[in-house]
Design a protein that fits this description.
By secondary structure, the chain is an alpha/beta fold. Helix content is 44%, strand content 15%. The chain has eleven helices and eight strands. A hairpin with a 2-residue loop joins strand 7 and strand 8.
Length: 239
């Protein structure tokens, strides 16, 4: 079993941080929420509720409408998430055309505007490029542009700054803060970096060996940890 008795909720407009060491089940939680689990995965019990809809009981058609429209995810490695054979513009405009019914011209204009929102300079040039022609920071901004294209209610961020250097990481985190204010989406922020979670999230859950061992407001959890594992994590943070 990867996860056991994991239970938490995210309020509208709230950022919830899920932390823990590699292999503890954080990404599995994200994949379960998005219903992206592998075909051989089984959810033995429980519910995953999105605005009263049980995602575990949702049909394939319902999930298609939800993903990219009201739920979106930004992955750990944008280089492997973007399609290498399609231009960036084609991939972003696809979201607008499929979920919003925009014409080709409307979708192209909306894509350029969204790239500006994610602070990419010269959007027209970036739209004509392929993913391998972009830097890691640019690729991650493109992923945010695709995720936010339809103003989703829930944004799942699975270690979105892993693999980025410190300067670009700081820029991407500032971008997340600004976008959160602009779009007011609920955020599930998954990370092993406690400093980032303390900065970005109101509440935090600590995952250890597939179990949620502690949960609470960020300030309280980081200043007065109750579980020995949480204390051990905090002692690993460079001062």
């Amino acid at each position: 079993k990867v996860l056991n008795d994991v239970s938490f909720s995210i309020k509208p407009g709230e950022a919830y941080g899920l932390v823990g060491e590699s292999g503890c089940g954080k990404t599995t939680v994200a994949m379960a929420v998005m219903r992206y689990l592998a075909p051989n995965a089984r959810v033995n019990a429980g519910h995953i509720l999105f605005q009263e809809l049980d995602l575990l009981a949702a049909s394939a058609e319902q999930l298609r409408k939800l993903r990219g429209d009201r739920m979106a995810m930004v992955y750990q490695d944008p280089g492997s998430s973007l399609n290498p054979s399609l231009t960036v513009g084609r991939q972003i405009t696809e979201v607008y055309r499929f979920h919003r019914g925009f014409s080709k011209a409307e979708a192209s204009e909306a894509a350029a505007t969204m790239l500006e929102t994610t602070q990419i300079s010269d959007p027209a040039r970036i739209l004509r490029r392929y993913p391998h022609e972009l830097s890691g920071g640019q690729q991650q901004r493109v992923m945010f542009a695709m995720a936010l294209a339809t103003n989703p209610d829930l944004l799942v961020l699975d270690e979105p700054t892993t693999g980025l250097d410190t300067t670009v990481e700081a820029e991407v985190l500032d971008l997340v803060s600004q976008l959160r204010t602009k779009f007011n989406a609920s955020i599930l922020f998954i990370s092993h970096n406690l400093g980032i979670v303390a900065r970005m999230c109101e509440r935090v859950g600590v995952l250890y060996a597939g179990r949620l061992v502690e949960e609470g407001p960020s300030r309280d959890l980081f200043s007065h940890p109750k579980h020995p594992y949480t204390l051990g994590l905090l002692r690993c943070v460079p001062r």
